[in-house]
Design a protein that fits this description.
It is a single chain. By secondary structure, the protein is α+β, with helices and mostly antiparallel strands. The protein folds into four domains: 90 residues, Rossmann fold; 68 residues, ATP-grasp fold, A domain (Dna Ligase, domain 1, 2-Layer Sandwich); 127 residues, ATP-grasp fold, B domain (D-amino Acid Aminotransferase, Chain A, domain 1); 91 residues, Glycinamide Ribonucleotide Synthetase, Chain A, domain 4 (Alpha-Beta Complex). 30% of the residues lie in helices and 27% in strands. A hairpin with a 2-residue loop joins strand 16 and strand 17. Helix 7 runs antiparallel to helix 8. Glycine binds next to loops.
């Protein structure tokens, strides 16, 4: 069995590591993969947005199954293009990936089907948006409609910041066409929970919950990043919250997408905020989260490929999806300066006897050496019986990995551990 995984970050490394557990899989290709993924898959220099290149590679190499992991190729229709030439895939078609690709679409979907989310208004011209801001409650949240590398959300704490955000997005087009429309929404408060969920449009099976740490610096300070670390499970996601989410959010979303003729098959990511009025959707993603995947998949006890194939064949209800009762912690090691300017090209040293999993995000191979090539370089993941042990073990392993200019947050898991004590 020959598999192809589209993407080249830490998330894809975690997916590939898990897929390798299935003995029927003889080959895994990563397009494009990265220098660290090269230890677990054959990396092919085809970009994740190069849909024609992806389809050509799959056909030329008799690929049996494709996993499309990042948002860009999903929104661009990679699954549609692969299915057209007869290659089964894990991942939603473009008409369902729009749940992440357009915030206007997802907000309107939630309103139409009564799924709890922040109150909002949509604007397609700057003048009307600026007028609305004059009387909007502050803080307010401004979101570019389309994909913006995770940077399209601005929490404005003053009216001036809100005005500037509208101008940047709609007039200066800092996110290009993604800013042709914007959503201005109510600021919500409460702990955040990420829930990744397998769904084939008939069955919805949430994975173990997780908590991301989006800010660059300790104490949730500094700039927003792609994620500096994660823990699973998330202590705020209690059994009661989970039951409420299933009833009011997860199943209604699956059914809403079916009613719209946009059946979602793949991993649907629910970004939730547990407000005093109950859980609300902050965002949907049409894919596995990064770095949530790095803590969720190591806790999966069932076979990932069996689940992915069942999703693609709409038989998810027939397979077992079991998670361990333990915990996991992922600490991201990044290049100093990330998410702004940073230097790369430094050798990464990972001892062979490291007592943790390392998922590589931004590294390349050069003369058999692994060199940093990105902002987020790698994630160090430890699983254990308890969250405290997982966090402790992850940091002990982090201290054994080295490269020049490395930095990481030192408080991944601290908030979750404090919540467990209360
Ligand atoms: P997103 O890119 O949609 O994940 O948003 C980035 C982050 O902005 C989220 O993880 C939240 O922390 C925050 N955020 C987004 N929408 C809201 C909201 N309505 N109220 C408060 N915080 C929000
Ligand atoms: N960690 C957030 C995301 O994957 O969008």
């Amino acid at each position: 069995m020959k598999l192809m995984v589209i993407g080249g970050g830490g998330r894809e490394h975690a997916i590939i590591r898990k897929l390798r557990e299935n003995p029927e899989i003889t080959h895994i290709y990563a397009l494009p993969g990265n220098g660290g993924i090269a230890a677990d898959a054959v990396c092919i220099p085809v970009g994740a947005r190069d849909i024609d290149g992806i389809v050509a590679f799959a056909q030329d190499n008799w690929i049996d199954f494709a996993v499309v992991a990042p948002d860009d190729p999903l929104v661009l229709g990679a699954v549609d293009a692969l299915e057209k030439v007869g290659i089964p895939c894990f991942g939603p078609r473009a008409n369902a990936a729009i749940i992440e690709g357009s915030k206007v679409f997802s907000k309107n979907l939630m309103k139409k089907y009564g799924i709890p989310t922040a109150k909002y208004e949509v604007f397609d011209n700057a003048e009307a948006a600026l007028e609305y801001i004059e009387n909007a409650p502050i803080p307010t949240v401004i979101k570019a409609d389309g994909l913006a590398l995770g940077k399209g959300v601005i929490i404005a704490n003053t009216r001036d910041e809100a005005r500037a955000a509208v101008k940047n997005i709609m007039e200066d087009k800092v996110f290009g066409a993604s800013g042709n429309s914007i959503v201005i929404e109510e600021f919500l408060e409460g702990p955040e929970v990420s829930v990744l969920s397998f769904t084939d449009g008939k069955t919805m099976i949430p994975m173990v919950s997780s908590m991301d740490h989006k800010r660059a610096l300790d104490g949730d300070c500094g700039l927003n990043t792609g994620g500096m670390g994660t823990v699973a499970p998330n202590p705020y996601y209690t059994a009661d919250v989970a039951a409420e989410c299933m009833e009011k959010i997860f199943l209604p979303t699956m059914e809403a997408m079916n009613s719209e003729g946009r059946t979602f098959k793949g991993c649907l990511y629910f970004g939730l905020m547990i407000t005093k009025d109950g859980p609300k959707v902050i965002e949907y993603n049409c894919r596995f989260g990064d770095p949530e995947t790095q803590v969720v998949l190591p806790l999966l006890e069932s076979d990932l490929f069996t689940i992915m194939k069942a999703v693609s064949e709409e038989r998810l209800g027939e397979v077992e999806v079991k998670f361990s009762s333990g915990a996991a912690c992922c600490v991201v090691m990044a290049s100093e300066g990330y998410p702004a300017k940073y230097d790369t090209g430094f050798e990464i040293k990972i001892p062979n006897d490291i007592d943790a999993e390392v998922f590589v995000a931004g590294a390349k191979l050069s003369d058999e050496k692994l060199l940093t090539s990105g902002g987020r370089v790698l994630g160090v993941v430890k699983t254990a019986d308890t969250l405290a042990e997982a966090v402790d073990g992850a940091y002990r392993a982090v201290d054994k990995v080295s490269f020049d200019n490395a930095f990481c947050r030192r408080d991944i898991g601290a908030r979750a551990l404090a919540a467990l004590k209360n």
